[in-house]
């Protein structure tokens, strides 16, 4: 078998397995009632333990036709979607960075962002147990990375957290209500740690623009006006992933904008 093909197959399978584990983290972390390790995987409806062949990423869902084999309750589509997403992210990392330290650290980064996206959508919280260690891991990565300096990482942490903190503080002074949670501030600090301060303008602009668009549709649908609340973490996370994989394209667009805005 071709070595390159074997590498992609291994990366895809590993991503799917980690995606299966991330589903456990997503399910158990917000409630903090169960360890993410114990007890073993079980149906959330009938509580029956799952056999090994019921835990195969994606395939088990397809074979079982999306239902528990014990009680026949529907299995959330979230499970295969998270597994597929982590598989694709793993393949994309290997495609972009090869077998390198960057791939290993960015794999952790992508896994953390994926968990944050799903948890924030469901619970509108970003667990500190993910973002705070993520900041430290991002700094460690900068010490080992040939492309990201520790100075860029530290500035990214300070600028990322500082910018959102300032926005949240000003909004509070204006409206006397919290407009942004502390979890978003820590998340952007983690993004700055992994991607450096250069990524922040794109991440903030893209997440804000997409958040406004979705927010307007949410306001129309929910008919709550200014009381409508949508989680901001998913927008920050998706923008960070876009920058991670399309950094060169982002820089080209930025240079094109500068050439048009400031000709000559």
What descriptors fit this protein?
single chain; 264 residues; mainly alpha; 2 domains
Descriptive account of the structure:
The chain has helices spanning 3-28, 59-63, 78-97, 101-123, 128-144, 150-175, 182-195, 200-222, 233-261. It is an all-alpha fold and 264 residues long. The protein has 2 domains: 1-98; 100-264, no CATH class. Helix 1 (3-28) crosses helix 3, helix 7 crosses helix 9 (233-261) and helix 8 (200-222) packs across helix 9. The radius of gyration is 20 Å and the shape is globular.
Helix content: 55-70%
Summing up helix and strand content along with how strands pair, one would put the structural category as mainly alpha
The span between the termini is 54 Å
For the biggest sheet, the summary is: none
How many structural units, i.e. domains? 2
Total number of helices: 9
Count of beta strands: 0
SSE pattern, N- to C-terminal? HHHHHHHHH
Which outline best applies? Answer: globular
What is the residue-averaged pLDDT? 87
* Stretches with pLDDT under 50, minimum 5 residues: none
Binned strand content: under 5%
**Over the alpha carbons, how many angstroms does the gyration radius reach?**
20 Å
